[in-house]
Specification:
Structural class: mainly beta
Order of helices and strands: EEEEEEEEEEEHEEEEE
Number of strands: 16
Distance between the termini: 45 Å
Radius of gyration: 19 Å
Helix content: under 10%
Length: about 200
């Protein structure tokens, strides 16, 4: 096995070609019931690195998230700056998108989740199936990589945590300077709610 980021990868296969500072890759990593496949190219510039993702898929049993075939995702990183262009992951009517940059005071990374089944994400993360519901969220990340600011609003509907079911969990989060402001509301049903 191979240990990457604290995770044990049981099987890794890759077909790679390196010419003129460009690495083309087509790889599959397996860990138990999870599998990650990725194909694309990495460009190694002197001032930054750039990864063009042709196809990316993360699978756990019958749950598969993959890049939107119409997108052409690119990630650039280097010199304390990250640029994300056209990342769109889809699974049926579910979407997660990211676009923008972080690294200077005038750049912003936008992240959006539409109709995401959090139970599926829990399964992909090999969680213990405690979470359920549909997530819709919008967020921005700005500032530097050393001192980011995150502002987001979210709504988790028809949710559950273990045996506790609720109608909705909504809120806004603002994180900056190592502190966080949170404004949330949990509606168990139309007559019972909690705010914080």
């Amino acid at each position: 096995f191979l240990r990457v980021g604290g995770q044990e990868v049981n099987e890794l296969t890759a077909d790679t070609t390196y010419t003129q500072q460009k690495l083309d890759f087509d790889a599959t990593a397996k860990q138990g019931v999870r599998q990650l496949t990725a194909a694309g190219s990495a460009l190694l510039h002197t001032d930054h690195h750039e990864v063009h993702i042709g196809n990316l898929a993360l699978q756990s049993e019958n749950v598969i998230w993959r890049t939107d075939p119409a997108s052409h995702p690119t990630v650039q990183y280097g010199n304390s700056r990250v640029v994300i262009d056209d990342i769109k992951l889809v699974n049926a009517d579910q979407r997660i998108e990211a676009q923008g940059a972080i690294g200077s005071a005038n750049e912003t990374l936008h992240v959006k989740a539409e109709n995401v089944d959090v139970a599926q994400l829990d399964a992909l993360a090999l969680g213990d199936q405690r979470l359920a519901g549909r997530l819709n969220a919008n967020g921005t990340v700005s500032g530097t990589t050393a001192a980011p600011r995150v502002v987001a609003d979210f709504a988790l509907t028809e949710g559950a945590f273990r045996d506790f079911k609720f109608m909705s969990f909504t809120g806004k989060v603002d994180y900056a300077d190592r502190g966080m402001n949170v404004d949330v509301r949990l509606d168990q049903d139309p007559q019972a709610w909690l705010t914080a």
